[in-house]
Structure formats: structure tokens, C-alpha cells
Design brief:
The complex is a heterodimer of chains A (180) and B (170). By secondary structure, chain A is an alpha/beta fold. Chain A is 42% helix and 19% strand. Mean pLDDT of chain B is 79; it is low at 22-28. Classes of the chains: A alpha/beta (180), B mainly alpha (170).
Chain lengths: 180, 170
Amino acid sequence: MADKRKILTLLLPFAAFIILALFLATPLLKGSDPRKLDSALIGQKVPEFTLQDIYDPQKQYDASIFEGQKMLLNVWATWCPTCYAEHKFLNKLAGQGMYIVGMNYKDNRTKAIKWLTDLKDPYQISLFDKDGMLGLDLGVYGAPETYLIDSKGIIQYRHVGDLNEKNWYETVLPIFNEME
Amino acid sequence: MQLSSFRYYLIPIGILLLSLTSTAANSAIEAFAFDNVEQEQVFHDLTKQLRCPKCQNQNISDSNAPLAQDLRNKTYELVKQGNSEQQVVDYMVARFGNFVRYDPPLTPATIFLWLGPLIFIFIGFYFLYTQLKSQKKQDDYLDSQESERLQQILGSKTSVKIKTKQGKKQ
């Protein structure tokens, strides 16, 4: 009896080690990226804003454009190489009928228009956030970022980095389909 | 003679002066003007305790990333408007989450960080306690035969106080 207890006590550090190793190894094996942060705005409405249309400075939009149907909000810029890589896939999604609002983030209007003309424009509405004001309110910390917004204008998910076939079908689309 | 030796030093001195001007220029990239010393202090405290979400493990005062610059400017703007340190922190947390704080609050997700060390201290004390307890048990008392023998060896002249199991003198 006493022997059994002693063996158990001696095994205790080993058990603690196994638990700690599993705890530390899980994120590594799952391949989770510590640079990807959850948005602080999930479950909240898109912040209030007034921004110009990228093509037409006379045209202005506010947060009401995000209501009525579920959609994607894609944050992009011409200075962002990953956005270039992502653009083709966005065109494909738009071709399938996905409603995407584009937000050009801290960029140059002429360059942005040239980009959209040369590479095709997948956006139903293109916002021009020159100073990154809406970007700051959304907590954007790197382009590209894509927000999933439901029909009530509430942010349900944020994807950081480029959208591609793999992460779209594996992660993002199931969440999009869940949304109302 | 003296003049030529001066000429010899001229180039190193020139290089030294040049390098001084360039560091001066570097440190003057951003100049923020404040209404009073308190505001300036609040601003410096904030830029040291807010973490840059893009360049992780750097605070926004250390980082040169465009996002850190934006956050510095926003912090300046908010402090200049008369917001308190807590108000600015809340503003940033509302947008970037608790990740921007180097001093995480007590939440279900961080409770282990706060209570973990306490748990280890308790485990340590428990270990000490059990060790001490088992040591006490091992204290060897003399039984009556042993104490008699000891008396004999020491001789009857010397009276020795012997601690026995019963706690009585034999």
C-alpha cells in the first residue's frame, strides 16, 4: 500500500510533464498562427463612418450599406503584395455572386483605380479610407483582412491574411453559411 | 609642426561631428507638443504600455511600423483632447482587444496566468509540510530496555534525562 503510494508520488512529476507538453504542443501541431488575432468587434455592428467612393469623391457612404444582406468586407491596398495574390480569388467569388464591399486602406486613389481597372473590380461598393479612420475603428492591423458581416450589419468573423481556395472552403465559407 | 598634427586630427573630428548630427536628426523624427507636463507623461506612459498588434512583442513607442505610428498619433490626439490614461486604453482595447495591453486584465482566459504562480506556491508549501511531517515521525525514541542499557553504560552516578516514548524519566 505504502509502496503503491510512493510509486504514484514519483510518477506525479512525469504526469505533470505530459500534461504541460500536450498543452504546449497543441497550438504547434494545429498550426495556429500567433500573429492572427481575433477581432475585438465580433458580435458588434460595423462602426459609424462616412467615406468617399473610390471612383467618385462626390459619392459618400455610411454604415447603413452593411445592412440588408450578408456580405464580405475586404480591406486591401496597392502597397500590399498579399492583396495582389488574393485578388484573383476575390474575382472568382464575385463571379459566383458573392456580395463584397471593398475598403481601400491608406492608399493612393489613382493607383487604386488603376489596380481595379487592370485586375478587374470584384467589389459592389468600393470605400476609400485614405487616413485609415475606419481601419482604426475596425481594428485593422494588416491588409488584407476580410470581415464577415450578417444582414443586420453585425460583424461575425474576421479573416486575417489572403483568402484562398483552401481557407475559404475549410474555414470561412462554413461560417458565412451559418450567418443569417 | 603643431599645425600639421591638427590637420592629422581634422578628418576623425569631422566624422565624429557628422555622426552626431545624424543621431540628432534621427531622434527628432516625431515631435509632439503638449499643453502641460502631465499630458506628456501620460502620453509616454501610454506608448510604453500599449502593444503594437502588427509587430508583436514591441510597444507602440518602440516600433516603426506604420500601424504603430498611427496608434501613436491617435494616442497623442486622444491625450491632447484631455482623455485620461484609462480612457485611451479602453479606446484601444475596444478596437484591438486585450492584446494591445501589456498588462492583461483578469478574465476567464487569463486566470491561469494570475493564479498559476499561487498554485505552485501552495504545492511547494504542501510538499514542505508533508516532508516535515514524515521527518517528525522518524524521530527515534528509546524504549524502556534501551534506556536502561544507556543508564548502565553511562553509570548510575550520572543522572541523564532521557526522552522516552512515554515522555517519562526511567
